[in-house]
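batch_manifest entry 22 of 60
target: Cytochrome C oxidase subunit I
source organism: Candidatus Methylomirabilis lanthanidiphila
requested by: lab member K.T.
priority: normal
notes from requester: please return tokens only, no post-processing; we will run our own comparison against the previous entry in this batch. if the run fails, retry once and flag.
--- input ---
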Amino acid sequence: MEKANARMTAAWIVTGLTLFPILILLGIVMRANQGGLITVPADRFFAFLTLHGLGMAGTWFVLGMASSNHLLNKYSPAPLAGNIVAYGLTVIGVVLLIMATLIGKFSAGWYFLYPLPFYSTWEEWATPLFLISITVLGVGWLVWTLSMLVAILRKYPLSQALAWHYLLGSKEPEVPPFIVVLTATLIGIFFCLLAAVTLLILYFGEYLGWIKNDALLMKNLTFVFGHTLVNEMLYLAVAVLYELYPAFGHRAKWKTAWYVALSWNATFLIVMFAYFHHLYMDYVQPTGFQFIGQMASFLAPIPAAVVTIFSVLAYTYRNAMRWNLSSLLYFYGVLGWAIGGVAAVLDATIVNNFVLHNTQWVPAHFHTYNLLGQIFFTLAFIAWFAEQVSGTPFSVGLSKSIFALLLVGGWGFVGMFYLSGTFSIPRRFNLYPADLSLGTTLAKGAAIFAILYLLGTLCFVFGASKRCLRAFSR
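--- output ---
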């Protein structure tokens, strides 16, 4: 069972690391086109944008699930069948998504906001194929989520898994922080996938001519699903951080305390309503929801981010840390998460949102806490797993090269987004007119920095993949 789980984890890692450089390359192509370095037809550009956005979110979601699933087996083995079903359906879903975007030129963006998929300039068959691909992916991920929740609840009742007894002053039975964070996250994923199921049923209903949908309802469902999922995939990586980061120091492992229990229970509730900040511009949205979105956006970072950041800094301070590729990625990933989170809160403030909403400040903040936060966290796990399964650590020279390329390339890349947003350069443009020539210049810089990040990624992929493949020969 242990070997089978290690092999499934390795399969997820090798698959994800194969997709990641390709998706980065799509991003470089788009920024190079915006910078006037190459020419990409508009229909192809927006198909790339759709595949890049969904592909990145999906890749790092499943890698977050795979890393969490692997560590969960230490406490309560998750059914292997759920993992295998999720892998098979994910591969099928990705193939269908690639066909819909690269061949059918489906270009509605990751958010595929209603009613855009029904007013297309792409192949007619691309819309139903896209919806089928999302359905296949969603079913696989829902099965996987439920299988992991079953494993947790087999050992811990729900109240214990969420550490409610800590809130009442009891510390028995002891529940690791990893389990608390993972349980809250998986429940959130379950609800956002239910929103996706509802959304897809409504899409298919209209496609078949059975119903006519309400645009406001469809937009709410889209962001309940999309916004919540990308937050929860970050929390999957944070759960793993709670479990692994103390292994790089010389102090005791973290234990659950009342404030950890409170913060992650609060996060589970708050993050479900933070998506309302995506609808500030929708004047027909009930005003009360806008206030809820504002408050949830302010409160969401406090429980999870502040407690975790403080814990990491306190653990690291005056601790004889064993600095290697994994621990460096974890520590600097916290920095990316923190800065990206602050930028997100600035954008989610209504008075700022009127100015920043359709500018490149938006991709700036989510690339920061994903590219330099969540992805750093998951790469840290992958490096740790690769060394564990192979018995061969990354060399100091390779580790320094990878880390330097990722850090310089990543921060340079997102820096171009922040500068563009500051000067009101709009997002989602494939080309900038002469009046926005600064956007063209900054896009060139972004493409160059992204190439550095890609080089670091390729070095990491080569080093990690060859180590992970040894799991199949054990």
